[in-house]
Amino acid sequence: MFDKLLSTPLVTDVAASLDLVAFPCAGSGSAGLRGWREILPADWRFTIACLPGRETSYGQPFARDMARLADDIAQELRGRRAQDPDLPLVLFGHSMGGLLAQLVAHRVPADALVVAACPPPGRRDTQDDGRPLDRDELRREVAGVLQAVSPIEPGLLDELVELTAPVLAADIELLATYQAPTTTLSCDIWALYGDGDGIEPQPWTAETTAVAACRVLSGSHFFVQESPQAVVAELRRCLTPVRGGKA
């Protein structure tokens, strides 16, 4: 069992009206989302999932089973929410993080699930799931993730790619263990897509008995990092019902 899978909540001195938990994309960590605290509403409590083997858990074994990882995150999240069980819970996941967020939502009742750059489970192309990338492919993918977060000097980029490539390789193996739930959620699911991504925008209709809708934003597969203000603005819009009509 893994522990300390959630960051310390990034809060302000304003009483929380919503509990937002974010799940980063494959090959990355919490660093690419920490800047959200500056642009999120002050009354949103913000937590980021920190998967094993990176950042503060560097050196720990990587997770090898997504369902077990979801179990561990859910257990930690339930403990975190024990003091504020009625605070609306929203799970946000980018790409692979969207699938992990979905699994957690099946374990901890959420008021809304928001997925970005992540097609519905039944429409995913799983042909390459778990296929090991060669060195050049890994470098290209990792460089894309890192550069989307922030421009990096070429020399430093090479060093960071070498450090991060094992993380992406492990996450690709982890993705291959994903199994779509056989039951549906009862919360709204919002799917966000980038207009420059190769993913066909589709709502997650089959995954919930509530509202399932999708929106297309400007950007690539990494639009979450490229245009965080636009993503947060969309979150505020689609989560208005969760916040009792407060935009």
Description:
With 247 residues, the protein is α/β, with parallel strands linked by helices. It is 31% helix and 14% strand. It has six helices and six strands. The chain has a six-stranded parallel beta sheet, sandwiched between helices. α1 (66-80) crosses α2 (96-105) and α3 (135-149) crosses α4. The longest helix has 22 residues, at 154-175.
Main beta sheet strand tally, sense and closure: 6 strands, parallel
Helix/strand structural class: alpha/beta
Stretches where pLDDT is under 50 for at least 5 consecutive residues are none
- Sequence of secondary-structure elements: EEHEHEHHEEHH
Topology, number of strands:
6
**Shape summary:** globular
Average pLDDT metric: 88
Distance separating the two termini:
39 Å
* Gyration radius, rounded: 17 Å
Describe the strand arrangement of the main beta sheet, using strand numbers: 2-1-3-4-5-6
Helix content class: 25-40%
What secondary-structure arrangement, pairings included, does this model have?
Elements: E1 18-23, E2 44-48, H1 66-80, E3 89-94, H2 96-105, E4 112-116, H3 135-149, H4 154-175, E5 188-194, E6 212-217, H5 223-226, H6 228-238
Helix pairs in contact: 1-2, 3-4
In a few lines, what is going on in this structure?
With 247 residues, this protein is an alpha/beta fold. It has helices at 66-80, 96-105, 135-149, 154-175, 223-226, 228-238, and strands at residues 18-23, 44-48, 89-94, 112-116, 188-194, 212-217.
